[in-house]
Amino acid sequence: MSVSTCPSESSNAASPASGLDELDRAIVLSTQAGLPLVPDPWGAVGKPLGLAGNEVLVRLRRMQANGMIRRIAAVPNHYRLGYVANGMSVWDVDDAHIERLGREVAAIPGVSHCYRRPRHLPEWPYNLFVMLHGRTREEVERQAEALRERLGEACRDHRILYSSRILKKTGLRLARRPGPPR
Predict the structure, then answer these.
(1) Cα R_g (the chain), whole angstroms
(2) How crowded is residue 133: how many other Cβ atoms within 10 Å of its Cβ?
(3) CA contacts within 13 A on the Cβ side of 173
(4) pLDDT tens-digit map of 140-176
(5) pTM score, two decimals?
(6) Which residues touch 87 (CB under 8 Å, ≥6 apart)?
(7) What residues have CB less than 8 Å from 10, skipping those under 6 apart?
(8) Which helix (H) or strand (E) is 24 found in, with range?
(9) Cα 151 from Cα 116, distance rounded (Å)
(10) Close Cβ partners of 41 (under 8 Å, ≥ 6 residues apart)
(11) d(CA 70, CA 3)
């Protein structure tokens, strides 16, 4: 689970800056490394906190709606699934069309990341970044060719930057406070 909040300064009340009360903080702490792989993960998270599973889910959805949690999602290890050819494709797309084309590209199944970045001319003309995953480089290059066709005349150039090593990826983690765990 990706968490986009900072530790609360208050010991037992909601922080005005984060809106995170102690129970919400305990839920985030118990889920930030992943949900338990059980039939009722929300109930398993809630039990030590004295909450029913549906209460945990309601609180998580509220934190998500308020922007304190970015998303609740499975994070597969694509390397273990055989997707070892990973390439960040970078595109030089006409600024007049990038908003529309970026939304279209982001909606393509299999595109895990798609975002606009500033150009750094003259060395770096690319303004659209799209992460592609495949079992082989040829598969990634086929995906890039399909993207090139979709971008059409608005695309002036592109490159694929392949991953050379795996970096540990984790989101922000709240620190546990000293004292007895909740």
Answers:
(1) 21
(2) 21
(3) 10
(4) 999 999 999 999 999 999 999 998 877 766 666 788 7
(5) 0.63
(6) 131, 132, 134, 137, 140, 144, 160, 161, 162, 163
(7) none
(8) helix 22-31
(9) 14
(10) 35, 53
(11) 6
